[in-house]
Amino acid sequence: MKTIIKDWLEFCEVDRITRRGLYNTLFMDNISEKEVNTIFEPFKNKKELSFRMNRYLNDWRKGGIIDNTDNKNIQMRDFLKSDFEERKVDIENVSFFNDIVFPTNYEYNDSYDEVHKMVMSDEFSQEFNDYFREKKINENPKTYELYRAISYISKHYSYTQYLFQPLVNMNYTANHIYEFLIRGGVYAVIDDTVFYSFKK
Q1: Using the 8-state DSSP alphabet, how is residue 29 labeled?
Q2: Rounded distance, CA 186 to CA 119, Å?
Q3: How far apart are CA 26 and CA 39, in angstroms?
Q4: Treating both helix axes as pointing N-terminal to C-terminal, what angle do 72-91 and 123-134 enclose, rounded to 10 degrees?
Q5: In what order do the strands lie in the sheet with 105-108?
Q6: What integer pLDDT is reported at residue 3 of this predicted model?
Q7: Percent of the chain, pLDDT > 70?
Q8: What's the pTM value of the predicted model, to 2 decimals?
Q9: Residue 29: which region, alpha, beta or left (left: phi > 0; alpha: psi -120 to 50)?
Q10: Phi and psi (nearest 5°) for 109?
Q11: In sequence order, what DSSP letters do the residues of 168-190 get, joined into one string?
């Protein structure tokens, strides 16, 4: 077993504050499925956490899911619509989002780069991510450090939401956005519209 994983298990047992970022690389270095399972052993939802992380690492190492579906832009739009409908249940009565317009339109853009540039202006997704982080089941040190380690290995905050979801007090599963992203999708919410594209 790697030293960092041994140290991690000892840290989880004591569960006291440690040097910030000490476990950022916990999931790096071609980690195996067995090692992933060991890392999540101290957590109540360990099976679901392990499943999601192992799935993500497997898909990412293969370069994502190669999907040659006819009318892929429609399939990708449907993933997004399902995702945002699921988010709405959690946030529609939250004052945090009173001043944020919930998107209701979906627009495909053939230019991946154009949509990618829009991401920096996506206020809705930034606010949703902040809200998601606040809904962690608890704030003990091991949960906090696990979130940091997951954020470090994931390539997008929506992947972080998918990977950490079993430890969040929300109905939102992030399953649909995972399917969208792992197929090369990119999206940005501007006003009431979700603009999206994907790598061919």
Answers
A1: S
A2: 9
A3: 8
A4: 50
A5: 105-108, 193-198, 185-190
A6: 94
A7: 100
A8: 0.92
A9: left
A10: -125, 125
A11: BSSS---HHHHHHHHTTEEEEEE
Two tokens, residue 186: 């990119």
Residue 181 token pair: 């992203």
Cα gap 30→134, rounded to integer Å: 30
Structure-block tokens of residue 192: 């009431």
Q: H-helix or E-strand containing 195?
A: strand 193-198
Please state, in angstroms and rounded to a whole number, the distance separating the CA atoms of residues 27 and 152.
8
Mean predicted confidence (pLDDT) in 136-157:
89
Q: Tokens standing for 123?
A: 């206020």
Which structure tokens are listed for 43? 């957590």
Residue 134 confidence (pLDDT): 86
What would the mean pLDDT of 129-144 be, rounded to a whole number? Answer: 86
pLDDT-derived band at 101 (thresholds 50, 70, 90) equals confident
Could you write out the DSSP letters of every residue in 116-164? HHHGGG-HHHHHHHHHHHHTBS---HHHHHHHHHHHHH-SSHHHHHHHH
The rounded distance, in Å, linking the Cα atoms of 88 and 97 is 10
Average of per-residue pLDDT across 29-33: 92
